Amino acid sequence: MSTKIKTSFFCQSCGFQSPKWLGKCTSCNAWNTFVEEVVVKETRNNQLFTNSTTKPRSNKPQALPTIEMGSQQRYKLNDEELNRVLGGGIVPGSLVLFAGEPGIGKSTLMLQLALQMAPFKVLYISGEESEQQIKMRAERINIPNNELYILTETSTQNIFAQLQELQPQLVIVDSIQTLYSSHIESSPGSVSQIRECTAELLRYAKESNTPVFLIGHITKDGSIAGPKILEHMVDAVLQFEGDAHYVYRLLRSTKNRFGSTNELGIYEMQGYGLREVSNPSEILITNRDEQLSGVAIAATIEGARPLLIEVQALVSTAAYGTPQRSSTGFDLRRLSMLLAVLEKRCGFRLGIKDVFLNIAGGIRVDDPAIDLAVVVAVLSSSEDIAVNIGYCCAGEVGLSGEIRPVSRIEQRIYEAEKLGFKNIIISKYNVKGLDVNKFAIKVHLVGKIEEVFELLFA
Description:
- By secondary structure, the chain is an alpha/beta fold.
- It folds into three domains: 1-40; 75-278, P-loop containing nucleotide triphosphate hydrolases (Rossmann fold, 3-Layer(aba) Sandwich), CATH 3.40.50.300; 283-457, 2-Layer Sandwich (Ribosomal Protein S5, domain 2), CATH 3.30.230.10.
- Helix content is 25%, strand content 26%.
- The chain has helices at 80-86, 106-116, 131-141, 156-166, 191-208, 229-233, 280-284, 332-346, 371-383, 409-418, 449-457; strands at residues 6-11, 17-18, 34-39, 95-100, 122-126, 148-152, 170-174, 184-185, 212-216, 236-241, 248-256, 264-270, 273-276, 295-302, 305-317, 325-328, 353-359, 391-394, 396-397, 403-404, 423-427, 442-446.
- The strands form five sheets. The protein has a nine-stranded mixed beta sheet with strand order 6-5-7-9-4-10-11-12-13, with helices on both faces.
- The chain is globular, with a radius of gyration of 26 Å.
- The N and C termini lie far apart (90 Å).
């Protein structure tokens, strides 16, 4: 009996399905994104992904106290940076999407993770590289593992047959855009194929209680390739960032059902793979022999990790009449606000000058506690007076020029003390319940920008 061919139109931007072609998508308002695809629905065996080592799921409702937790709730990894970003390890049965730009090191980090998982049985599925290419990368990483299996396949039906036979404890798919399912008659990488393949892998992960990592591609505008529903289906979305011309890579979590999305992992690209950076403050602060104007150190917090970062500013006379405002790693609108506060409340004539700001190390910071360091760096460059190397700052600047308190001030002070700083400037409103005498570092309490200027540049 022949199957009736059914076609639908899919938006390549968001995955919205329509029975007819539309010029404008009614879901995401994108223009000219609908593509016709052949959709063939087949009868599938509901027991396709069962795993004999796990207890079959019950379809009956269960009271919350009667639900049994496994003996091991998370797989603890040897990679502490990945552990931190995931929220403490891999949760069994979770589906994690790992995305990043081409050449950033996604496949290297995932292969490194697979090699470090011994004695767990790991299946690495590649639709982009041959076994020999993966073997070459594994030899470069040089971590022995006899329980890592490589499968070069793109058909999900063949993949599930191998999964049923091997029954691995961790599955890595490189990449989700290369897979195709015979249930959907469209090319690999299309919206319907990505959605269908992800749904099949999600069903396998939940029924077999096996964690699955999906490597995803990035489009030219920086979003994850495929329909937006892809990010809703998975349990966690990890973003691997960095410039291919620099050695440092940042791992962030944009979605995590099992942990915080504020954590940050930092890696350094080496010839043998990616090295974890356990103390990122050392790489984010430039080692310099002489004092330079326009440089200030800020004590910030990324998730649960305190960091000390270097803020660099350059203030110069506007050459073309209209002053320029440029910021790298810091919100440009917030920089404009801080410059307006300095001009209105403190009398510094910055409206006729070019101001350039850079956060060293290539990271982006949203913590308002670095406001004070931004102000200090701008004033240092404007007056051409260097800030003493032993000083760092932690404070938010309000519109009236006051220095506002910030959260978790003790962690920031201890991090500055650990890195050898002798002085830290904080808001005087932060001392409630805080004993400043217990620290080896000297704590300076300020309430206005004028007090900071007098302390550093008097």
